[in-house]
Design a protein that fits this description.
Largest interface: A-B, 22 and 23 residues
Largest sheet of chain B: 6 strands, mixed
Number of strands of chain B: 10
Oligomer: heterodimer
Strand content of chain A: over 45%
Largest sheet of chain A: 7 strands, mixed
Distance between the termini of chain B: 36 Å
Structural class of chain A: mainly beta
Shape of chain A: globular
Helix content of chain B: under 10%
Helix content of chain A: under 10%
């Protein structure tokens, strides 16, 4: 079946970087964009942007420019989210989700990134 | 960017109740709206796409309606498994914004 499996939880210090992976299986990876969604503790869903595997072209939402980078390794059907210069307010669960054109499905299980000194 | 506003933020209901959640867009999104269900500690799950189309495997007690700027998600008879947070999302524009969520809790 179609699945997205994300890397495990991360604990980082302020100023460090983190790279979250999202491995796809069960479909042709190049066929659908991969979205990234942030959910801060107790908060709602924020769309961060997407990356299109065919072109490698990322699009970032307004609040996620500069420190956030989406990338791909199509040889292993994996998308990546890298966050640099981490701040305490980056503490959140980060989800990847496949773009169906009519919604997001499926979603990865989420990766908790905790930023604390 | 298109803003999505859900109401209410919290809804208290009992098993068997009919429940309706509203989502308003800041400009017309035609039918380009999805609804998701999220349970604590889990990823969201797609319920409805294109405003009123039921995703495969989703129980028929869920339904969606609306066009343009006003949309509703209805649960015809609330079941214990339905207590969760629900989000609308527009995909009319390249910026895929979510509503702030509606928490359906046990009355």
């Amino acid at each position: 079946q179609v699945r997205l499996v994300q890397s495990g939880s991360e604990l980082k210090k302020p100023g460090a970087s983190v790279k979250v992976s999202c491995k796809a299986s069960g479909y042709t990876f190049n066929s659908n964009a991969i979205n990234w969604v942030r959910q801060a503790p107790g908060q709602g869903l924020e769309w961060m942007g997407w990356i299109i595997p065919n072109t490698g072209n990322p699009t970032y939402a307004q609040d996620f420019t500069g420190r956030f980078v989406f990338s791909l390794d199509t040889s292993v059907s994996t998308a990546y989210l890298q966050i640099s210069s981490l701040k305490a307010e980056d503490t959140a669960v980060y989800y990847c989700a496949r773009e169906k054109g009519l919604g997001f499905d499926p979603w990865g299980q989420g990766t908790l990134v905790t930023v604390s000194s | 960017d298109i803003q999505m506003t859900q109401s209410p933020s919290t809804l208290s209901a009992s098993v068997g109740d009919r429940v309706t959640i509203t989502c308003r867009a800041s400009q017309s999104i035609r039918s380009w709206l999805a609804w998701y269900q999220q349970k604590p500690g889990k990823a969201p799950k797609l319920l409805i796409y294109k405003a009123s189309s039921l995703e495969s495997g989703v129980p028929s007690r869920f339904s969606g309606s609306g066009y343009g700027t006003e949309f509703t998600l209805t649960i015809s008879s609330l079941q214990p498994d339905d207590f969760a947070t629900y989000y609308c999302q527009q995909y009319h524009s390249y910026s895929r914004t979510f509503g702030q969520g509606t928490n359906v809790e046990i009355k």
